[in-house]
Amino acid sequence: MSAIMEIINATRGNCACGVKHETTIKDIRIGSGLVHQVGAILKENGFPKSILLVADQNTLKAADGILESLEGFAVELHIYDNLRVADMIHVAELEEKIKGREVAILSVGTGSVNDPCRLAAARQNKMLCIFASAPSMDGFASYSSPLVEKGFKASYPAKSPEVIIGDTKILANAPVALKSAGFGDMVSKYVALIDWQVSTLITGEYYCEKVAALTRQAIDELMVLADKVTENDEETAGKIFEALLKTGIGMSYTQNSRPASGAEHIISHVIECKELIDGIIPNYHGDDVGVCTLETLKFYDALAQRAQIDTRYEDVDWDAVYRFYGPMAQDVRKLNEPENIIDLVDPKKLKESWDQIRKIIRSVPSCEECKTAMKKAGCKITVADISKNEAFFRECMYYSPFMRKRMTLLRMRYMII
Q1: Pairwise CA distance, residues 143 & 158, whole Å
Q2: Which of 232, 267, 288, 351 has the fewest Cβ atoms surrounding its Cβ within 10 A?
Q3: 3-state SS class at 188
């Protein structure tokens, strides 16, 4: 049994948080040359004889040998040219192919390929295997799928795969840019943990110490490997992949992205949606998220410098908010009216809890510490690095809290004076 499966088995089931942690994950394999064993692994895990293999040209090329490993299966290919943006249209396409059939999905790739597969498999109750083509993001074991629908990006409850396979030879040989993006995505979990703890403190939101600890362990382990991220080294690639899986398992246990996604991801989603409206293909997810993480940490670090604050009830210019979102305004309006998540925050409690909030912020590495690690990992670290106009980025950051019904410290900024 792999070390990561031992972690799953040790943390699965009833928990002190009051929730029974479950996941559909049955098997995780990490090792060299596993691309040639995919068929055997699927058979061991009871997959049906018919397989829909979903990939794009790049990920299929990276997984050279996978088709030959599927001897004995009836394999149908669904290959995209270069899938950079996962859309609900892709989910509909896949559902149409698997509906009413005894078939499983084999997703070869990373986020943009995996996410439509995850939701289609969930909706049609089909088995799913993810074969990772690069250690570029943390969603391999996730329960949810971030997808774009009519220009608006949201996360949909989906399913974790029954099987996850990582061939360390392929992961190590992945493009450096993808590996660096994966590191940027992982560092973002520090912001996610701040936001989750602050929301729990102020609003009483559900929180699991065990899941949070698993996420924190994964990030800390990866930070130590920062200077090895860009190397073509199988052992390092395997460790990085395991760290990415741990955060995905945490999301699977809570059945949402709370343990691994906070204000920084929302900012990134706003940027992506605004760019899609203008016909711009977004950067790699981890590149934008990494920079959003540093900018959010910079803001939080500055807040932590304040010994005390005054608070007020939120006063927002909603006309300005909806003007900013333009074609997305109606979707954003639904998230904020008639119920506004900020109504859960008592200004008096926010003020009285300020010392605890400062401690929570300081419980994770600072912006400068994260920036140092990200430099070692070859990450993009400035707004200019991700080719964004500074004014555009600041506007996206300012208005981002209204795009999700999720409490973050950044969402509370309008109450702090």
Answers
A1: 5
A2: 232
A3: coil
DSSP per residue, 103-155: -EEEEEESHHHHHHHHHHHHHTT--EEEEES-S--S-TT-SEEEEEETTEEEE
Cα distances (angstroms) measured from residue 396 to each of 61, 242, 271, 276: 36, 32, 6, 14
Residue 313 is predicted with a pLDDT of 95
Spatial contact of 156 and 117, defined as CB atoms under 8 Å apart: no
* Residue tagged 């390929």 (tokens): 113
- In this structure, are strands 50-56 and 104-109 parallel, antiparallel, or unpaired? parallel
**154-185 tens-digit pLDDT:** 889 999 999 999 999 999 999 999 999 999 99
Among 89, 59, 95, 258, smallest CA distance to 171 is for: 59
Residue with tokens 């084999």: 106
Q: What is the pLDDT of residue 139?
A: 86
Taken in order of first residue, the domains within the chain and their CATH numbers are 3-174 (3.40.50.1970), 241-415 (1.20.1090)
Please give the model's pTM, rounded to 2 decimal places: 0.93
Q: Give the pLDDT of residue 306.
A: 98
